[in-house]
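Team,

Forwarding the record for the chain on the shared tracking sheet. I've put the sequence and predicted structure together so nobody has to dig through attachments.
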Amino acid sequence: MKFSCVNLEHTVFNRTLFQKLSAVFPENSLTGIIGPNGSGKTTLLKYLAGITKPIKGNVYINNKDIHTFNNRERAKKNSYLPQNTFISYDLSVLEIVLLGRAAHQKYFSLWSDVDKKIARECLKAVQLDGFENREIKSLSGGEFQRVMLARMLAGQTENLLLDEAITALDIKHSLAFLELCKKLCENGKRIVLVIHQLELAYRYCDNILLLGLKNGKSLFGETKKIMTKKNLTLAFEVMTKHEKDILSFYSAK
């Protein structure tokens, strides 16, 4: 399945955050969206997910505009995880993951045995088999994010779009989550992730979409070709150091 965007533009109060933004997201790959605060990363991800319609530009799935699909059809193509996901009601882990099956359900129908089997398989895929009956509020931050990922997997979409999924996680759980994302990509998923941890983006992402350059310019391509010292200095106004697969920062510009 081809997933792409062409000539996207976003302007806030006469300030153009990005324009003429085009990209074809490769299959079986992890793409990181990076850029300074206020550069339009979340807005871009919502455009890609089909949640928000861009004023200019288009998002395509198999060369078909994403907004020609109805909500149910679109939910079978893209799974989206927003920032700061909060669940106020008491549900079990299995019940949360089953919500990812909603687009495949007939209205007012009960979860089928097939749905439950798929949900359990998704929990196993994120290394949470045996957690089915745990209350969602009893989980750690890392476990919660893996449940959210399992819910996305339950939708059986090829594209997973995540907004700052590791921002609130410690380094151990961040590494585990990104390792899991890499494994899912190897098994056929396409993941687009808004990420602030540039060192981890450099290490784990196959491709990078860099926002925040002058005049709304953006860059897209293989990670090592985009996250260069020059480009990162222009976008973030910091000095960087590259040593093999390790990226570090040592001073403000």
